[in-house]
C-alpha cells in the first residue's frame, strides 16, 4: 500500500474537524474572552465573535480539505478586519485574538492527528509551515482591510466635518437648532471660545499649516476645516481659560504663507462674522511671506472692514498730502501724530515716547497741520486724524491709494470640499 502525501493526510484531518466547526468556533470565542480584556468589554458581542470565528475557521478547513488548492480565500479575514475597524476595536487586540485562534486550531489538528496515529502526526508536521504561513496571510489580509476601512472612515469623517464647517461659515441664515446640531456633530460647545483661521493655500497642494493638528491636540483645542480655492478655513474650539496667545503661537510655528485669525468669539452662530475678520486679516498681509495676523474686534475695525473702499477714500482726503511725501517723512510725521494723540496732545509726553525734544514734536505737528483740512485745535480735525491713523494702523494697504484691498468673500458653501 503506497504512502499518502502529507497534504492528503492533512486534508483528511481537516475533514474530520469540519463537523466540529461550531464547537471549535465556540471554544475559540471562549478563549478570546478569557485571555483578552478588550473583548470582555462587549464591544464585540458573543454572537458576533462566534460568527467571525466560524467564518474564518470554515474557510481554513475548506482550504486544507482541498489538498490540490493553491489559492487562499481571504473573505473571512477581510470581513473581520473591516467589521472590527467599524467597531473601533484596537488592531493589536484583534490580531492577538487571531493568533490565539490559530494556535487553538493547530492544537485541534494535532489532537486529531495523534488520535489517528500512523503517519498523520508526521504529515501534519510536514505541513506545519504551510499552515502557519496561512496564519500570516490571514493576519495580513485582516490588517489591510482594517487599515483600509480606517482610512475610508477618516476621509468620510473629514468630508462630513468639512460640510458642517461650511454650514457654519455660510452665514446667519442657520437656525439656532441647526447650529446646536452642528456643534454636537463637531463635538464643539454651542457657547465657548472660538477662533476662525484662514490660511493661504500653497502651490502644489501642500498643506498651508503642516503639523498644526498635532499642536492643537496637545493644547486640547478642537478643530474642523474646510478647503476652498485659495485658502483653508478652520474653526477652532479653545478650552476655557486657554490663553489665545498659545493657540496663535501654534499657528505661527507652522505657517507657510499668510494666515488670518479672527477675534475670539463666544457663540458658534457668530462664525460667519468671525470668518470675515479672518479673511481680511489674511488678505491684509504682504504677499509672498509667511505671517499670522489677528484683527481686534473694535467698532472702528468693523466699520472700516465693511467699508474699505469708502475708508480708503476718506484716508486719502485726510492724509493725502502726508502720504505724498517721501517714505521717511511720511513715517516720521505719522509716528509723531500717533504719539501725540496717545499723549492726549502733550508735546512733552509725546517727546518722551519718541525719545526726542518736545519742541521737535511741536515742529512736526505744525508741519503735519499744513496737510490737514484744518487746525489741530479743532476737535473735528483731531477726530478725523485719529480715525485715519487707526484705519491705516489696522489696514496698512489703505496708505496706498491704488493698492489692492481685501475683497469680500464669495459664497463659501459652493467651494470644493477638503
User: Strand pairing plus helix content: what structural class?
Assistant: alpha+beta
Strand percent estimate: 5-15%
Taken together, the total number of domains comes to 3
- Any low-confidence stretches, pLDDT <50, length ≥5? 408-418
Tell me the layout of helices and strands.
Layout: H1 6-17, H2 21-35, H3 37-40, H4 46-65, H5 75-86, H6 91-116, H7 120-126, H8 128-169, H9 176-186, E1 191-200, H10 212-218, E2 222-228, E3 231-237, H11 244-254, E4 258-261, E5 265-267, H12 271-283, E6 291-294, H13 299-306, H14 308-323, H15 327-342, H16 347-354, H17 358-369, H18 379-394
Summed up, what is this model?
The protein is an alpha+beta fold. It is built from 18 helices and 6 strands.
Detailed description of the structure:
With 418 residues, this protein is of the alpha+beta class. It folds into three domains: 6-153, Globin-like, CATH 1.10.490; 176-297, Alpha-Beta Plaits (2-Layer Sandwich), CATH 3.30.70; 306-399, PucR C-terminal helix-turn-helix domain (Arc Repressor Mutant, subunit A), CATH 1.10.10. The protein has 18 helices and six strands. It has helices at residues 6-17, 21-35, 37-40, 46-65, 75-86, 91-116, 120-126, 128-169, 176-186, 212-218, 244-254, 271-283, 299-306, 308-323, 327-342, 347-354, 358-369, 379-394; strands at residues 191-200, 222-228, 231-237, 258-261, 265-267, 291-294. Strands 1, 2, 3, 4, 5 and 6 form a six-stranded mixed β-sheet that branches. It is rod-shaped and about 115 Å long. The model is unreliable at 408-418 (pLDDT under 50).
Amino acid at each position: 500500500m503506497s504512502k499518502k502525501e502529507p497534504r492528503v493526510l492533512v486534508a483528511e484531518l481537516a475533514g474530520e474537524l469540519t463537523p466540529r466547526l461550531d464547537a471549535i468556533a465556540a471554544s475559540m470565542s471562549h478563549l478570546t474572552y478569557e485571555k483578552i480584556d478588550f473583548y470582555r468589554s462587549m464591544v464585540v458581542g458573543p454572537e458576533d465573535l462566534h460568527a467571525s470565528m466560524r467564518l474564518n475557521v470554515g474557510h481554513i478547513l475548506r482550504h486544507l480539505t482541498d489538498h490540490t488548492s493553491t489559492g487562499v480565500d481571504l473573505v473571512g479575514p477581510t470581513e473581520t478586519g473591516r467589521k472590527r475597524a467599524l467597531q473601533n476595536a484596537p488592531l493589536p487586540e484583534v490580531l492577538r485574538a487571531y493568533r490565539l485562534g490559530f494556535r487553538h486550531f493547530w492544537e485541534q489538528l494535532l489532537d486529531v492527528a495523534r488520535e489517528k496515529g500512523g503517519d498523520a502526526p508526521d504529515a501534519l508536521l510536514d505541513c506545519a509551515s504551510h499552515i502557519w504561513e496561512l496564519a500570516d496571510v490571514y493576519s495580513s489580509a485582516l490588517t489591510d482591510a482594517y487599515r483600509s476601512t480606517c482610512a475610508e472612515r477618516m476621509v468620510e469623517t473629514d468630508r462630513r466635518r468639512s460640510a458642517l464647517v461650511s454650514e457654519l461659515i455660510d452665514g446667519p441664515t442657520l437656525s439656532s437648532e441647526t447650529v446646536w446640531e452642528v456643534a454636537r456633530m463637531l463635538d464643539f460647545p454651542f457657547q465657548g471660545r472660538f477662533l476662525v483661521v484662514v490660511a493661504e493655500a500653497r502651490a502644489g497642494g501642500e498643506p498651508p499649516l503642516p503639523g498644526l493638528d498635532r499642536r492643537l491636540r496637545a493644547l486640547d483645542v478642537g478643530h474642523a476645516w474646510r478647503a476652498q480655492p485659495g485658502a483653508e478655513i478652520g474653526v477652532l474650539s479653545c478650552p476655557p481659560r486657554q490663553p489665545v496667545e498659545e493657540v496663535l503661537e501654534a499657528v505661527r510655528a507652522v505657517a507657510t504663507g499668510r494666515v488670518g485669525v479672527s477675534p475670539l468669539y463666544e457663540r458658534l452662530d457668530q462664525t460667519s462674522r468671525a470668518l470675515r475678520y479672518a479673511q481680511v486679516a489674511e488678505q491684509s498681509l504682504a504677499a509672498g511671506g509667511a505671517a499670522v495676523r489677528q484683527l481686534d474686534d473694535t467698532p472702528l475695525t468693523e466699520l472700516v472692514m465693511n467699508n474699505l473702499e469708502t475708508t480708503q477714500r476718506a484716508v486719502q482726503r485726510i492724509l493725502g498730502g502726508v502720504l505724498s511725501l517721501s517714505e521717511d517723512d511720511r513715517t516720521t510725521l505719522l509716528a509723531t501724530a500717533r504719539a501725540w494723540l496717545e499723549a492726549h496732545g502733550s508735546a512733552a509726553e509725546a517727546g518722551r515716547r519718541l525719545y526726542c525734544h518736545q519742541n521737535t514734536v511741536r515742529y512736526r505737528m505744525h508741519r503735519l497741520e499744513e496737510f490737514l483740512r484744518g487746525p489741530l485745535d479743532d476737535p473735528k480735525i483731531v477726530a478725523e486724524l485719529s480715525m485715519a491713523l487707526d484705519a491705516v494702523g489696522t489696514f496698512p494697504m489703505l496708505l496706498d491709494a491704488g493698492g489692492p484691498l481685501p475683497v469680500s468673500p464669495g459664497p463659501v458653501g459652493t467651494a470644493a470640499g477638503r
